[in-house]
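FORM 12-B: Structure-to-Sequence Request
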């Protein structure tokens, strides 16, 4: 099961409290968006789920397995999670095929399996003609598709996205929003998506968590957030 559960999760850096008692369960196959202004704690929350940061207090579960807790910490490579970053993070010295194949190679999967899975993903991403192409020859949208393909190829069931479309122009952002949502439906994966862009959140999400200064201000469907903002901060942020 690709559920994600956070129980009383807090995060501090020194004397600065970044996240204050985050409690949530993200259901299997749900599209969750963490929405809020810069510095509100949304990326820190995503990084704790991924295993790049350890909570100061509280617990995180993936399925029924505890991955973070007082005396538990599973490193990122053992959490079976795909992640897409704002900067694409494709390796410039590897061609498209090798970039996408990387998660399978480090897991030492059989060569035939790697060939089949990578080519299937490249077809899904519209990149079949670019197997041998180096990233420097690709557009921003194509590089982001490579990053998505690499995150999906290991079939983890969970995809974390940290503002993945912010470096694209408006036309490409709209196109990629549609493609990401189609991918989520096709693969039935759980997505946790970080953005400060209300349009992205409303277009793609099943539920939105609005954050400010490390505190969840409101949780709801896009319709609920737009029509019944919980407080002045949410109202001002969305309007």
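FORM 12-B RESPONSE
SEQUENCE OUT:
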């Amino acid at each position: 099961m690709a559920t994600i559960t956070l129980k009383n999760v807090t995060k501090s850096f020194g004397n600065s409290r970044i996240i204050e008692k985050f409690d949530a369960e993200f259901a299997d196959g749900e599209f969750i968006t963490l929405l809020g202004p810069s510095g509100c704690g949304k990326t820190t929350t995503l990084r704790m789920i991924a295993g790049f940061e350890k909570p100061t207090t509280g617990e995180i579960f993936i399925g029924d397995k505890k991955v973070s807790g007082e005396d538990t910490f599973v490193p990122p490579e053992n959490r079976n999670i795909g992640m897409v970053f704002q900067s694409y993070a494709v390796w410039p010295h590897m061609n498209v095929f090798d970039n996408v194949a990387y998660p399978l190679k480090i897991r030492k999967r059989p060569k035939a399996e790697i060939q089949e899975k990578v080519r299937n993903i490249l077809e899904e991403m519209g990149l079949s003609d670019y197997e041998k192409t180096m990233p420097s020859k690709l557009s921003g949208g194509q590089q982001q598709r490579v990053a998505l393909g690499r995150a999906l190829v290991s079939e983890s069931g969970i995809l974390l996205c940290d503002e993945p479309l912010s470096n694209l122009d408006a036309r490409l952002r709209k196109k990629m929003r549609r493609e990401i949502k189609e991918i989520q439906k096709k693969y039935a994966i759980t997505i946790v998506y970080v953005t400060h862009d209300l349009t992205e959140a409303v277009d793609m999400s099943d539920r939105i968590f609005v954050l400010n200064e490390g505190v969840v201000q409101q949780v709801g469907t896009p319709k609920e957030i737009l029509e019944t903002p919980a407080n002045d901060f949410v109202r001002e942020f969305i309007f």
